[in-house]
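RECORD TYPE: inverse folding
INPUT: structure tokens
STRUCTURE:
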């Protein structure tokens, strides 16, 4: 009898339990036991956050011994593996949920397998690397509705995203017509393409074959990892894939957006797909055209890298340029907790600006910050319940653990976050037919006018991984 069967059996004999339709029925004080696939770099913050929310890690896995040494040292009594399937097999009876913190190209394979094994899943963003991988992940989640899924666009659990939606729905800026979102991160190695032709020795601490996994295997190059795998089209999804789930989230949630009517990716710099297609450009402006629920059009424009220089400033406030420091300046970073990302949301009566996660640093231009609005008792009445759990950064982890225990469902599950993921992946695909407006065929789930962009909707994968 495994742990979950024991708990279910105890319930049948009348012991006090909490139920919610999840795979595991829990005592009120039952500990959620987890494993982490990936325990170096970004997933360390997730592990710490989940432990802070009361989860217990019984297994850690990573293919890079050097990258993971800090987390292994912090958990000397936790079993460590270099092959995630061996960990899942060995610890199956003790696992309730899995944290997936690997590079993008592994997410879909791992998430689908964990769901089929009956495990709740928290997955780093973007949820996957290609449009059709997301279809497969959504199907797996739908087949297992009793399991909790959560995408780590953590701002969806913040209070400020709820404030933003309430401001929009209260009509503070009138009828919303468009949004301009920027992220100056630049994921390009156009100047490093020749490095791929050299011979490099694989570090003894790295299982390079396992790191590549389902992607057609290549010779090792130190410019592939760690972290910089996002710069390569075979492993990452560019700045748009990495950051859109944070910056688009307030708009998607407020208007219930799914897939756009059309997409246009405009390249900044000398990048050409037939020459530089293994990496991404220095900057991209991507325009998504949507239709709001009321039938009115909505223009959604994304800027990254050097394209951020072209973000239009709200004309009615140009007399005070101190409101708009250069996108990559010290002033811009100081304004938003060290980050330069942000958004302008235009309405017929005004403009809202927000920051990098969950509509934080929210303000009604020119200077009506959320704090000032609250002080003046000018905020609309709260319509959407706030997530309990301490500081903003603690909330998504507390939300996940509570949901696994039978509490309210998470806000950014695969069904919700999958729509944003697929939107951004359409933008990445449009990059391979740049500077053209590509029409989306909703019935056939492909572009009507671009075979080059359609080729990016599904990526080559090896069997057996």
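DESIGNED SEQUENCE:
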């Amino acid at each position: 009898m495994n742990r979950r069967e024991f708990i279910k059996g105890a319930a049948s004999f009348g012991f006090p339990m909490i139920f919610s339709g999840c795979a595991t029925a829990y005592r009120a004080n039952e500990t959620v036991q987890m494993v982490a696939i990936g325990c170096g770099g970004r997933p360390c913050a997730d592990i710490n956050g989940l432990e802070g929310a009361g989860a217990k890690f019984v297994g850690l896995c990573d293919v890079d011994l050097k990258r993971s040494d800090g987390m292994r040292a912090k958990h000397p009594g936790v079993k460590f593996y270099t092959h995630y399937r061996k960990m899942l097999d060995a610890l199956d009876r003790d696992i309730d949920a899995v944290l997936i913190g690997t590079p993008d190209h592994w997410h879909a394979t791992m998430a689908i397998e964990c769901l089929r094994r009956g495990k709740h899943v928290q997955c780093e963003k973007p949820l996957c690397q290609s449009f059709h991988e997301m279809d497969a992940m959504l199907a797996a989640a739908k087949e297992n509705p009793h399991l909790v899924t959560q995408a780590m666009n953590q701002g969806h659990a913040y209070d400020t995203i709820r404030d933003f939606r309430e401001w929009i729905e209260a009509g503070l800026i009138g009828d919303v017509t468009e949004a301009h979102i920027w992220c100056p991160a630049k994921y390009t190695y156009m100047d490093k393409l020749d490095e791929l032709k050299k011979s490099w020795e694989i570090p003894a601490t790295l299982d390079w074959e396992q790191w590549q996994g389902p992607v057609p295997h290549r010779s090792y190059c130190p410019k592939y990892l760690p972290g910089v795998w996002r710069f390569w089209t075979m492993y990452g999804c560019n700045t748009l894939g990495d950051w859109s789930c944070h910056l688009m989230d307030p708009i998607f949630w407020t208007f219930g957006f799914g897939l756009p009517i059309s997409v246009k990716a405009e390249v900044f710099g000398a990048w050409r797909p037939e020459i530089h297609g293994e990496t991404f450009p220095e900057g991209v402006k991507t325009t998504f055209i949507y239709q709001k629920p009321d039938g009115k059009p909505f223009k959604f424009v994304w800027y990254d890298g050097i394209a951020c220089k072209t973000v239009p400033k709200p004309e009615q406030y140009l007399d005070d340029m101190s409101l708009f420091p250069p996108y990559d300046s010290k002033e811009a970073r100081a304004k938003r907790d060290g980050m330069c990302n942000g958004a302008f949301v235009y309405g017929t009566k005004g403009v809202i600006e927000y920051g990098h996660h969950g509509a934080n640093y929210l303000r009604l231009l020119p200077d009506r910050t959320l704090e000032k609005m609250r002080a003046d008792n000018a905020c609309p009445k709260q319509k959407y319940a706030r997530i309990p759990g301490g500081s903003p950064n603690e909330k998504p982890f507390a939300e996940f653990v509570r949901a696994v225990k039978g509490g309210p469902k998470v806000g950014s599950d695969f069904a919700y976050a999958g729509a944003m993921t697929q939107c951004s992946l359409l933008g990445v695909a449009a990059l391979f037919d740049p500077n053209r407006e590509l029409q989306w065929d909703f019935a056939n789930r492909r572009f009507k006018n671009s075979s080059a962009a359609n080729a990016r909707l599904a990526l080559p994968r090896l069997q057996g991984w």
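NOTES: The radius of gyration is 22 Å.
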